[in-house]
Amino acid sequence: MPRKAATVALTALAPISWGSTYFVTTEFLPADRPLFTGLMRALPAGLLLLALTRKLPRGAWWWKSAALGALNIGAFFPLLFLAAYRLPGGVAAVVGSVGPLFVVGLAALLLGEKPAVRTLLTAVAAAFGVSLVVLKAGAAFDPLGVGAGLLSSLSMSAGVVLTKRWGRPEGVGALAMTGWQLTAGGLVILPIAFLAEGAPPALTGTNLAGYAYLALGNTAVSYVLWFRGIERLGASSATLLGPLSPITAAVIGWAALGQALGPVQVIGMVIAFGATLMGQTAAAKPKPARPASGSFSSTEKNGQEVSMDLEVSGVRR
What we know:
Layout: H1 2-18, H2 21-28, H3 34-53, H4 61-74, H5 76-86, H6 89-96, H7 99-110, H8 117-134, H9 143-166, H10 174-197, H11 205-233, H12 235-239, H13 244-257, H14 263-279
Helix pairs in contact: 1-11, 1-13, 2-11, 3-10, 3-11, 4-9, 4-10, 5-9, 6-8, 6-9, 7-9, 8-14, 10-11
């Protein structure tokens, strides 16, 4: 149990870190360049990990790592940002909070994990708690934005489940696996970012510091911890840590940006946090793992990185 608690604590650092992304984005980065920001998060981090590990995929792992990178990063980031710019931040975060339900369904289909009723109730309670934290009265629902938010959650959820299903190639560590996925995902985002946003903006020292934090702590380290957690805890348990991201975003918004945090938001935090704790004891028991020749690995975020790039009280337009 102490070992599992340590694994849960380390894995939880990933969504907690993702909850800081909105603050860093608004305070340190150029405005209105979400795809460029996604690119700067993924590709430098992936290339750094490749340089450190000096391992490349072999055989089937070329397409597997590309598929995982596309699901966890390459598709997830652009869809997430599209939702963020078309929906108020609270609505986008709530749409993304259905990720654990997607993971439970996909885990049952692909991993043979039969979810307990308590697991399903925990996922619903977590989404309800998040809605209390971030959702404002009169929030607008743009169909394209809602669709993008749901697809981003589905993309990350599929990546989470396939990460668990494929395992990890023998002799390949978490750093190398993470590097493969971040590089693949960054290469997917690269042409989209340049086609949609044009040439990179001129960067100041403050911008570079913000991007360095996002690439290193917020992405490279966080995704290593996230993928490691999926492997050790299971898909459902790991993804039920996701509500920590909007909770962190709300606390940072209150402490650093002066955003209101009333009784309803506090109650929502208690519910979401309680569901997060329950999620570590309510997860389904998976079937015995088959011998792996598979993957270990992300958003992220849902995987729950949904609130990572969202304003808790409303997205900049």
